[in-house]
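Protein of interest.
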Amino acid sequence: MGTRFSKYYKIFKYLVSGGSAAFVTLLASYIFTSILHIHYLVSSVFAFLAGFAVSFILQKFWTFSHKSLDQIHRQLGLYLLVGLINLCINALLMYIFVGIFHIWYLFGQFLASGLIAIMSYPVYKKFIFKQTA
């Protein structure tokens, strides 16, 4: 029972961390696009990077409980690689949602972030923040 609870609690923490990063991403997207009048594709890149920073810190130290700084360079490098791949996926999804389907850019960013989060969890868990016995 404890292991099962631990598994669901980790998923809960992942969702809270991701939700916090998504909030930062959406807020930054709104600021860059609506207030600073930067094109939505360019602003989605800046917003994604802001969310990336929040995400790494929360995922490493809270969700996956890696308090040690010993592997932080490797983890950050791998996280950045996944983040860059996700950035490309994010831009593609934003183009599809906004440019082709004419979905409101903030809703498009919300959808893109959700899809990316679902795809990323197994990578973070099994490769980047893998628990060692």
